[in-house]
Amino acid sequence: MQKVKMPVELDPVKSAQKRSDFVGIYQLKDLTRLHEIVLSDSGQVDTDLKCTYDEQGLPIMLINAKTVVDVSCERCGGRLTQNLSVSSTFTPKLSRTDEDLIPSDYTLVDVNEYGLLNLLTLIEDELILSMPLVPKHPVDECAIQEQDMSWGELDEAAYKKPANPFDVLKSLKNPK
Questions:
Q1: pTM
Q2: What residues form DSSP beta bridges with 149?
Q3: Distance of CA 4 to CAs 1, 7, 44, 146, Å?
Q4: Number of domains in the chain
Q5: How many Cβ atoms sit within 10 Å of the Cβ of residue 128?
Q6: Predicted pLDDT at 176
Q7: Which of 128, 127, 109 is CA-nearest to residue 118?
Q8: Is 20 a domain residue?
Q9: Which top-rank group of organisms is this from (predicted)?
């Protein structure tokens, strides 16, 4: 099956009515915010989108997206390959939607005044959230070894607390 370019915007309600399925790609160069935190914009995001209704009659979008990006290791600064994967269920926030009835495993997404959802931005947000907070190689694969790392030591004075925190205020009020 040939991978085609995915739509940028989508009407989730109409797509659910049509039971639309999309299998395609986004180019990494089109994901500008993700490009700011990765080393290269070459590559693609493989995306699978299924629009349907759930048992409650809510329009839902089942999104699976995955890509491979290179980031900087926070320990050694070298290139680190990360596999990013997103698999979530989304439902649009409509005027008639009762948020209390939405299942906890669904993510509520906003649509614009025309009822359209920016699918590219949604997938980009989810990929950014799937990035590790501090990407780094495993210790045995990193250019910086454990013996090269140094840890600071505090002297005993740093561990002592003043007897009364208001003593500092007294000394400011009554200088000697």
A1: 0.78
A2: none
A3: 9, 9, 11, 46
A4: 1
A5: 16
A6: 63
A7: 109
A8: yes
A9: Bacteria
Do the domain assignments include residue 127? yes
Would you tell me how many other CB atoms lie within 10 Å of the CB of residue 67?
23
Supply the mean pLDDT for the chain: 86
Q: Phi first, then psi: give them for residue 8, nearest 5 degrees.
A: -85, -45
Q: Which two tokens stand for residue 146?
A: 């454990």
Task: Identify the DSSP state of 61.
Answer: E
Sheet order of strands, 44-53 included: 4-5, 21-27, 44-53, 59-72, 79-93, 106-110
The answer to whether position 162 is within a domain reads no
Query: Are 170 and 126 within 8 A, CB to CB?
Result: no
Q: 27-33 long-range CB contacts below 8 Å, 24 or more apart? A: 28/67, 28/69, 30/120, 31/120, 31/123, 31/124, 31/127, 33/124, 33/128
Residues spanned by the domain of 8: 4-148
Closest CA to 100 of 68, 56, 49: 56
Percent of the chain at pLDDT > 70 equals: 89
Distant-in-sequence, close-in-space partners of 145: CB < 8 Å, separation ≥ 6: 139
Query: Which secondary structure element, helix H or strand E, spans residue 111, and what is its range?
Result: none
